[in-house]
């Protein structure tokens, strides 16, 4: 894998999905497999109770600079200032909202949240570390 890193100034064209958080392993940050009671990390083998799973931001974007289009995913706490809360707290709000509204998919982001994220990012220019 190429270890050359750089900065890319680009504008956000679109938000690629509506799931902005994921259950993350505290050791390796891989996505956890959750069932109703337990979590399991397939990468490092970490296990625990589902209620203790931690969440992390994952924002997939389509971006453009002056010459090219790219797909990029931004991870982690660098997104806290944009959302105003940690991924843990946002996930808790999403779950509470979905429970109150009768949504059966407990991971689904409410439409208003998706619209707010699109309004915050689409058309804006950012510097991405790649």
Notes on the protein architecture:
Keywords: DNA-binding, Metal-binding, Zinc, Zinc-finger. Belongs to the replication factor A protein 1 family. Residues 9-95 form the Replication factor A C-terminal domain. InterPro entries: DDIAS, Euk_RPA1_DBD_C, NA-bd_OB-fold, Rep_factor-A_C. One of its GO terms (molecular function) is DNA binding. The chain has 130 residues and is α+β, with helices and mostly antiparallel strands. The protein has one domain (7-129). Helix content is 23%, strand content 34%. The chain has three helices and eight strands; from the N terminus they run βββββββαααβ. The strands form two sheets. Strands 1, 2, 6, 7 and 8 form a five-stranded antiparallel beta sheet that branches. The longest helix has 15 residues, at 87-101.
Please tag this protein with its features.
NA-bd_OB-fold, zinc ion binding, 23% helix, alpha+beta, zinc, five-stranded antiparallel sheet, globular, DNA binding, 130 residues, Euk_RPA1_DBD_C, single chain, 8 strands
What is the ordering of alpha helices and beta strands? Answer: EEEEEEEHHHE
Global geometry: globular
Strand content: 25-35%
Unreliable spans: none
Largest sheet: 5 strands, antiparallel
- Cα gyration radius (Å): 16 Å
Record field, number of beta strands: 8
What fraction, in percent, of the residue positions are helical? 10-25%
pLDDT averaged residue by residue: 92
Number of domain modules: 1
- Label the structural class: alpha+beta
Family: Belongs to the replication factor A protein 1 family.
Keywords: DNA-binding, Metal-binding, Zinc, Zinc-finger
GO molecular function, one term: DNA binding
Protein name: DDIAS protein
């Amino acid at each position: 894998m190429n270890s050359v890193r750089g900065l890319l100034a680009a504008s956000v064209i679109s938000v690629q999905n509506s799931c902005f958080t994921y259950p993350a392993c505290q050791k390796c940050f891989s996505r956890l497999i959750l069932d109703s009671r337990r979590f399991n990390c397939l990468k490092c083998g970490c296990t625990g109770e589902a209620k203790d799973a931690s969440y992390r931001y994952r924002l997939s974007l389509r971006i453009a600079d002056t010459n090219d289009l790219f797909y990029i995913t931004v991870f982690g706490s660098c997104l806290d200032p944009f959302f105003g809360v940690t991924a843990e707290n946002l996930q808790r709000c999403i779950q509470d909202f979905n429970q109150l509204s009768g949504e059966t998919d407990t991971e689904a982001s409410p439409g208003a949240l998706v619209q707010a994220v699109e309004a915050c990012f689409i058309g804006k220019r950012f510097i991405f570390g790649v």
